[in-house]
Amino acid sequence: MDQPQALDALSALANETRLQIVRLLVGRGHEAGCMRAGPATEEDPGLPAGVIASEVAVSASRLSFHLSALEQAGLLSAEKRGRQVFYRLDRRAMGGLIHYLLNDCCRGDPQVSACCRAVAPSAGRHL
Amino acid sequence: MDQPQALDALSALANETRLQIVRLLVGRGHEAGCMRAGPATEEDPGLPAGVIASEVAVSASRLSFHLSALEQAGLLSAEKRGRQVFYRLDRRAMGGLIHYLLNDCCRGDPQVSACCRAVAPSAGRHL
DNA sequence: TCAACACTTCATGAGTAATTGAAACGATGG
DNA sequence: CCATCGTTTCAATTACTCATGAAGTGTTGA
Fold this sequence. Notes:
The structure is a homodimer of 127-residue chains.
Chain A: H1 3-13, H2 16-26, E1 47-48, H3 49-56, H4 60-72, E2 76-81, E3 84-89, H5 91-105, H6 110-117
Antiparallel strand pairs in A: 1-3, 2-3
The structure holds a DNA duplex (30 and 30 nucleotides).
């Protein structure tokens, strides 16, 4: 990931609704909105726009705007299936952005890395 | 770091000039702008606004605006010394943002973590 | 083919961010 | 105390982003 891409991704994420969409899509809907809750490591089916709209409680047109913003930033991919459009988080892009912040922008600064790895208060370590 | 803080930080970083400022400050100026180049693990002296201005090639007033945006987002701290104001990157806040993206927003998703840890083409691993 | 559905696009208006140059502020040195 | 230097604040302009509702596109099923 280069700087222009990172700037696009940062702009896309700097919005409450879009951050909520990412949060929703990263779990492929196993938190809410998707009926089946399988193990977390299979192929990500994504979530149709309508389900996302009802989850984040925004109008269809507004959601479409935010989804295309995330898609243009490379953070989401869209796939049409029947009359629905399924959106899926691009995990590589998301990781790429974090990698960019950590290693390009912060040059792998040890203090930044340490804080990034640190566990939040009363939470299990994920990294 | 919570969501409002993360949104502020993301907005602050979603700007070319401000990203450049962060990049400049993370090296405490050992890349350019600061005359002495010591080892990277001591106390960070920060960089005065004037030096930052000449490095990123923006007018003083515009720089002041961007610096205070970063400061309000919690990413920078300012310290007045004599007639100059030294700005220093808050590495904990920077790491906290990355931690938030990785573990809150992406829920520690293994694919995201893997991409985040992956080395860039022909670059040493930092994390 | 027609109506319903899922979603996107368009037009419009409101709010917010970015840029510029001038003026103000506080610290320093003569 | 006055001139200067480094920096911030202010006012005005421009540009962008966000939100809303209506109209449009394409798909499905009767």
